[in-house]
Amino acid sequence: MAPLSKPVLQGQPYKYSSLVSKNGERFIRVLTILPKGDERRLRCSLEIIDLNKSPVYDCLSYTWNDPLYHELSADPSKAKKQTGDPIKQIECDGKIISITENLEDALLQFSKTGYISNHVKGCQENEQGFIWIDAICINQKDNAEKSVQIGMMDEIYSGARRAIAWLGRCDEHTHPALEIIQRLKSIPLEKRQVTITDFEGPEYQSILGNPPISSQQWNDYAAFIQRAWFNRVWVIQEAFLAKHIDVLCGPHVLSWKHDMWEVAEFLKDTNLGTLLMIQAGGAAHPDRKFTTYVNNSLNNQCQLEAMKTEAAQKPLSLERLLAYSRHFQATQAQDYVFGLLGIWKFSQGMKELPKDMKPDYSRSKEPDFVAQVFTRYSWFIIQDTGDLNILSLVDDVSTRQQKCLPSWVPDYSVGFHVHPLAGVRRLDPEHQRWDASKNFPFEVPLRKDSKKLPVKGILFDTIEETAATYSEIMDQHQISSLLNLLAWYPAEKYPSGGSPLEAFWRTLIKNTFCQHPANVEARDAFQYLIVWHVMDLEDASDEFEENVNTDELSSLFDKTKTTIGEISSKYKNCAVIPDMNTINDTIEQLGSLDPGSEKKEKVDRVFDDISEAFRIAYSCRRLFRTKKNYLGIAAESLEAGDEVWVLAGATVPLILRPAENGENEKWKVIGEAYIHGIMNGEVVKEAGKKVQQIDLV
Length: 697
Fold this sequence. Notes:
5-stranded mixed beta sheet; disordered N terminus; 15% strand; 22 helices; 7-stranded mixed beta sheet
């Protein structure tokens, strides 16, 4: 929740009475909108009710900041943008409360229509028009009250008759977007089982028919579902816990299930969502500072319903919830944790959060408050899961926003830049891909110093050399950097057996292809990845582009050809890294294929699959070779001299770096790693490995 700044009041400020209970009451405040007379301000009243008495009330789910997405508007610079500052005022029981513009828009809409008192099927009538709104019903200046009330959020939302999701006022995108929604939800189920690859293809035409949906209409829909509400972290809890959700945009009332979730599911399942994301990204205003991807909004809606289904079968872990929250946005970083505690408490069937789990705003003004919160709940996750797989959620240091965090604590306020190797969807042991610490007993460490995480580990190896990052390969054509590590590999055999060539291609896709363990099909597909990168470099070196040094690219192309020749000489009859003659022949064959032919479609599909496997594995990572000649990929910020460790309780190896201050037995986490040949207990099996007790800081 955003802190309220001090507005200029035109009247006496409202004075909140206490919500402290004496006999076990569960007090909250609820708002009633009073009939509007000649006054310019909205008139309201606050009343204290006891949740123990099962009162009838609604809850408002909304955003404090600007609710609209402007980047698909004709001229975003001219759009009227709201702030999250409380610059509007309402009269409450004769006194003044300052609120945001978006909240005022919602209250004005309710005041015009009396919507809060509308009938909800299967529920008691809200005859008194009670509604709970966080910014008004919680005294935002009382940290003790905020801590208690936020700890009750699961009770407040699950006890409400319904949640009203307020998307904000209408804009130029609203009406076309609503027409799209009505059209999409009317498509029969039997027509939905297809994959749409482009807006001109036969599958698209057969489903959507006539009249065609224009690019502008799709952009209008994209702008609608990228409104801030869909990406706000508190929404997860509010929508998850609500018995019933009505979605309001201006005067328009939508069904969460039929208009939002089912349409999002349809777009996601048919690939239309991805096409829409690409189109909207190209149409967004070029001066935008950032964009929210369409697929995030669609996935968020689908994931929310999936979590509801899962929670009905088993309790949700806090680890999974905090990982999920990283796909959303929050005004204050601590809300990435506090905004999920209600779901966790509800899912666990608890009446009260454990004392050490309750939100605490008493230290919120301290500069490291967010770091305290993230560290505190990371400790709890380790105690709850009984392992160290939370370390797989630690992103590269360059992406972290909370600079005071210990290196082993994930930054929950930043979206994932990599796909974690040890996923938060915990699989059954028989389906688990990797277990680097197999048969290495783990004991949950004692929490003596919250910033230090004591662990037991085995120092396996040290990084000797590194290659280019994903962005350098894609943007600067540095494919030769990867190939050099293979061409200059200083041994004939790989340490764990097999060819260095096999270890090379398997490492670059973390031994995974189309979400399954890599096989011969993946090996055969890998050549297309090499062919494409060489072709792309050749094209770039031949064509003049602004701010591109073609001489430099020509030199790089020559070096790449030389490296490929060295690999061909070193690894005879190698199809994985084809020689230049084979690459040129392949490029010529691909160029001669009929764009609509079955063979062309098959090749495109194979290339898309291997490119995606490489992207998922290598994004925000880099290839490295260790002193013992093992190949691996890990966080971009790794350096020669960093160490490879296998820690008890961690299913994948970790890259650690000795602390800069030279303290003994203290290391920083650089990130998790895929290292070919040591992913399933091989290090633990080796004799003579000394187990060390170290601290992660």
